[in-house]
Amino acid sequence: MNQNCDLLTLRSVSKSYGTVPVLYDIDLAIRDGEFLTVLGPSGSGKTTVLRLIGGLEPLTSGEIRLDGQDISDMPINRRPFNTVFQDYALFPHLTVAGNVGYGLSVRHVARKEIAERVAKALELVQLGRFTERFPAQLSGGQRQRVALARALICQPRLVLLDEPLAALDLELRRQMQEFLKSIQREVKTTFLFVTHDQEEAIGMADRICVMEAGHIRQLGTPHELYYKPNCEFVARFFGENNLVAGTLGETRGEFRAIETALGRLVCSVADQPHLKAAATGARGFAAFRPEALHLAGDGDAGNRFSGAIADLAFAGSSTVATITAGGDAAQRLRLRFPSRMDGSVLRAGETVALSFAPHEGHLVLA
Amino acid sequence: MIVVPRLSTILLAAVTGVVAVLLYSPLFVPIVSSFFPVARGEVDWSSPTVSTYVALAGNHEILAALRATLVVGLCTVVLAVVSGTLLALYYHGRRAGRSLLQFIVFLPFLTPPIISGLALLIFFREIGLERSLLTVIVGHTVFVLAIVYRTVLTRLQSMSRTLVEASYDLGATKWQTFWRVILPNLSSAMAGGAILAFALSFDETMITILVTGTQTTLPVRLWAMMRLGFSPDINALVALILMFTVLLCALAARFLVPRQIATQRS
User: B166 in contact with A at a CB cutoff of 8 Å?
Assistant: First the structure.
């Protein structure tokens, strides 16, 4: 599949329930063959996007195009998409085989062909032995896989997954993430996966679309979102982060200064023309990840400041120190460093010199 | 579970036993006595017999009443299940006039049967419909409709909305979704409602007395016979009906327990 070709595009799509708007002018292009995750807190409108694409809800305005053709008014049962529902929505009165074959059977495919394709689909999700079971006799993970097989059997152009892992326990969820990803690679179908769990999003997605309050905040690879968030919301929502408020200063090459309570900090603005172009004096944040912050050595150039260690939390392979800095108790920073067998060198209450390299910090506008 | 001391357990068992005996022993009297002859108003316990059952088979009035009851019951069930299900589907579709519909369906079930019966009687006379088993069937259907409606609606409401969405999503039409997803998931509720409706129709007396024509149903016939005193074959009849009722109740319980629970238990 050509990943650079757009399969589905949403153009200024809006949705209101009565007078309550839930989506504002959404533009989104889904590439053929990609694993796109829509990530957002509850109430961000991410499930609505999925329901609009699936045809479960009508658009309020805007249009949805498939291969360039407007499908906004195409009825749900004619759209070449299939959904894996959050509660799986398996038909309780049908066996596993009956459930998986349903999409073929309502299209009057010959019985023999249905049997063959059902067997193949169940083989794919490793449930070959369970054809005659009823959904009530399966575990959560098995139901999940039946729902996936049922969605894949009609060879949809796009598979819509509505938080399908939410009901599973942690260990099973991890397994299912890998499983889903491998299935997606195997069938080479486009997956649109909705979740509120950013760890899940990072682990599976080719690209992530972050939504908040009915708007798309950013669309990019997990790496881009992590290192180049384009707004405060994404910077805070996507992974742990340190944000220090300030006003933008001068730009020098690929770096720009920001005046903060911790002093003048210099951060990278590479490939982010909107940050280079922003007016001097504009309000913004210096953002740097807990793993980018470290104890300053003598020869350390870069952004230096001091802070007091408020708390230390051992988290297995790493330890996280919570630090107050800049004389403001509300300004808390996190520093993550590898744990050591002989205990931490840091003590709570200690004041330490800290630094982070300019190329490991970035800016976001307020 | 609550831990109960040993003595209390025995006491509880004794009370339960006494209540059970008081409640259910009257039911066994006709069953037992149906197997003994009655002479001059006294049961002769010395010689068991099935003669009452033979006499029952020859009692044409009773048999005709029984036949009428069954005909009325079956017709009522069919009418009530079809219209009750349709009403429940309509109500569930969230269209206008829902609360009014709910009210109208429940009204005949909640009003005293004598009022419903009189209202129907006046209505039938006004439209010039001769009283017959047909009017009885209409009366019973109006009366039991609420039961079927409520049973089916409860099942509909407990059915996940996503089942219907999943069906459409997989390419099914509305019609296919109805026949392949909605109806199969309602069928056990419909069967349960049908059994309850049949049981209600079977012993309905008040409305029947008012709207029936020359043919009578079993409860009405028994009612009429009270004045003359019971003949021994009534015992046999009661025994048969009791057995039949127990069977129906067992079936209803079987159908009204959702399938998922039933399979999980096995």
Answer: yes
Please tell me which of the candidates B160, B173, B264 has its beta carbon nearest to residue A89: B160
Q: What is the CATH number of domain A6-227?
A: 3.40.50.300
Confidence of residue A151 (pLDDT cuts 50, 70, 90): very high
CATH of the domain at B99: 1.10.3720.10
Residue with tokens 């005046």: A259
Tell me the shortest Cα–Cα distance from A356 to chain B, in angstroms: 50
B47 within domain boundaries = no
Q: Between A and B, how many CB-CB pairs are < 8 A?
A: 71
Query: Which residues have C-beta within 8 Å of that of residue A70, sequence separation ≥ 6?
Result: A63, A64
Is B12 among the domain residues?
Answer: no
ipTM of the complex: 0.82
The residues spanned by each domain of chain A are 6-227, 241-365
Q: Assess B158–A contact: CB distance below 8 Å, yes or no.
A: no
Domain A241-365 matching CATH 2.40.400.10: the answer reads no
Specify the residue for token string 């009578």.
B216
Count up the domains in chain B and report the number.
Answer: 1
3-state secondary structure chain A: CCCCCEEEEEEEEEEEECCEEEEEEEEEEEECCCEEEEECCCCCCHHHHHHHHHCCCCCCEEEEEECCEECCCCCHHHCCEEEECCCCCCCCCCCHHHHHHHHHHCCCCCHHHHHHHHHHHHHHCCCHHHCCCCHHHCCHHHHHHHHHHHHHCCCCCEEEEECCCCCCCHHHHHHHHHHHHHHHHHHCCEEEEEECCHHHHHHHCCEEEEEECCEEEEEECHHHHHHCCCCHHHHHHCCCCEEEEEEEEEEECCEEEEEECCEEEEEECCCCHHHHHCCCCCEEEEEECCCCCEECCCCCCCEEEEEEEEEEEEECCEEEEEEEECCEEEEEEEEEEECCCCCCCCCCCCEEEEEECHHHEEEEEC
Q: Which of B24, B45, B23 is nearest to B36 (CA)?
A: B45
Whether A154 and B171 lie within 8 Å, measured CB to CB: yes
Chain A residues near residue B185 by CB distance under 8 angstroms:
91-93
Residues of A in contact with B176 (CB under 8 A): 106
Which residues in chain A are contacts of B180 at CB distance < 8 A?
Answer: 102, 106
H/E element, A179:
helix A170-187
Task: Let me know if residue B48 belongs to a domain.
Answer: no
Q: How far is A246 from chain B (nearest CA, A)?
A: 48
Largest CA distance in chain B: 75
Joined together, the tokens standing for residue A118 give 């059902």
Answer yes or no: do A82 and B163 touch at CB < 8 A.
no
What tens digit of pLDDT does each residue of A161-197 get?
Answer: 998 888 788 888 888 888 888 889 888 899 999 998 8
In chain B, which residues have their Cβ closer than 8 Å to the Cβ of A86? 162
* C-alpha to C-alpha distance for A166 and A162, rounded to whole angstroms: 9
Beta carbons of A76 and B169 less than 8 Å apart: yes
In a domain, B53, yes or no: no
- Return the structure tokens found at B2: 């609550």
- Residue contact B169–A92, C-beta within 8 A: no
Q: Tell me the C-alpha to C-alpha distance, in Å, between residue B92 and each of B14, B100, B259.
A: 48, 14, 21
Mutation target to probe the A interface, by most A beta carbons within 10 A, among B155, B161, B170, B255 is B170
**pLDDT tens-digit series, residues B187-228:** 888 988 898 899 888 888 888 888 888 888 888 888 787 777
